[in-house]
Design a protein that fits this description.
Length: 71
């Protein structure tokens, strides 16, 4: 099975994708781990905001449909 990645992930260094980490020192691994954790935190925050925005839009659509049904 071929795994397709978004273009932005193709340009990421291999160690950020979990590959080619065997040559990294403990210090470099810790730095990489910290960098990845910060990235995950930003991604989760962005995802939460996007989901909340989508939820608001969907609630608005439902309210409009409900109001138009009673009109």
């Amino acid at each position: 099975m071929v795994q397709i990645q978004p273009p932005s992930l193709k340009s990421m260094p291999r160690h950020l994708m979990g590959d080619a980490v065997s040559n990294l020192s403990v210090k470099e691994l810790k730095q990489l781990e910290n960098r990845l954790e910060r990235g995950i935190t930003r991604i989760r925050s962005k995802k939460e905001i996007e989901l909340e925005n989508e939820s608001v839009c969907l609630r608005t659509k439902v309210l409009k449909k409900t109001k138009s049904s009673y009109a």
